[in-house]
Write a structure and sequence with these properties.
- The protein is mainly α.
- The protein is built from 12 helices and no strands.
- The protein has one domain.
- The longest helix has 32 residues.
- The radius of gyration is 20 Å and the shape is globular.
- The mean pLDDT is 81.
């Protein structure tokens, strides 16, 4: 009975989220009808390749060989789970369960998950920094933040870091657990990088994942005639996703759309066209795969893959 409930739960959550965002869905599909379909098909292809890139990165984060087909199916299902729970918790839970079912101990599975998140973050920030160095005029940051907001933002980040370090230092049990986890994670990191194939999969997939996501937005922009150079669209995407990474909304719903529109306007795009591009992009990357992903997730639970 519990397994049957877990199989149906993703479908229920998809229905709830779809009803809550029905106006966004209707407007997004309206923009899709006015777009050039070859570009949209290419954007859908880039979206599919993101699951392949995620599978490569997940495999690169562990020394053990994971079953390829089940790994790819899990990444597709994890994408759906990620849009139903806050701040990546859905995808993390699905992948953690998948690795433990594959026989990897929980400590090492958690370390591999942390390594994946670290590699993806480093790759995304490095890609953004490289593009900003090559194209310094791609974004006008003054339009993204209100006057005087940079200082308080940096102070808030520093304050969170100080509190986190203080808690670790003062709470002995938590400190012991953190030290143990760090030791396991460093051991997994060394093991992965002693095998060139794993290191290549980890870092190659980590770079390909945000690059493919940005390429999808570029292709949707081309389909709707967004008057911004493709590289500037990619920079706007990376900057927006980095900015909303700490916002705890399911799959970034709402926060990502707002940040992308602001970033595209900062890159020189008209507000109306930028909004249409973002809505169409989110339809392709979030809403169209959501139901098939939920069905796949239910099937994986039923088959005891996760």
């Amino acid at each position: 009975m519990l397994r049957q409930i877990l199989c149906l739960l993703p479908l229920l959550l998809v229905s709830v989220v779809a009803v809550q965002h029905r106006s966004v869905l209707a407007e997004g599909f309206g923009h899709l009808r006015a777009a050039e379909w070859p570009w949209l098909l290419a954007a859908a292809g880039a979206t599919c390749l993101t699951w392949v890139a995620a599978a490569f990165t997940r495999q690169g984060a562990v020394v053990d060989r994971l079953p390829k087909r089940r790994l790819l199916a899990t990444q597709f299902a994890a994408g759906s789970a990620n849009h139903l729970l806050p701040t990546g918790l859905g995808a993390s839970a699905v992948n953690l369960r998948f690795m433990t079912v594959c026989g990897i101990p929980l400590a090492r599975s958690s370390a591999a998950l942390a390594l994946y998140l670290l590699a993806e973050t480093v790759a995304r920030l490095s890609l953004l920094a490289g593009l900003l160095l090559a194209f310094p005029g791609a974004l006008q940051f003054g339009t993204l933040l209100p006057d005087g907001a940079v200082g308080p933002l940096l102070l808030a980040v520093a304050g969170v870091l100080v509190v986190a370090v203080g808690v670790l230092v003062l709470v002995r049990r938590l400190r012991t657990a953190a030290v143990s986890f760090l030791r396991t994670a460093l051991g997994e990191l060394r093991s992965v990088h002693t095998r060139p194939s794993r290191a290549l999969a980890l870092w190659g997939g980590s770079l390909a994942f945000p690059a493919l996501q940005a390429a999808g937005l570029v292709l949707v922009g081309l389909s709707l005639g967004l008057p911004i150079p493709p590289v500037h669209i990619a920079v706007a995407y990376l900057a927006a996703t980095v900015a909303v990474a700490l916002v705890p909304t399911p799959g970034g719903l709402g926060s990502v759309e707002a940040a992308l529109v602001v970033a595209l306007v900062a890159a020189g795009g008209p507000v109306a066209v930028a909004t249409a591009v973002v809505l169409a992009y989110r339809i392709i990357t979030v809403w169209l795969p959501l139901l098939p992903g939920a069905l796949t997730l239910g099937a994986l639970v039923r088959l005891k893959v996760i």
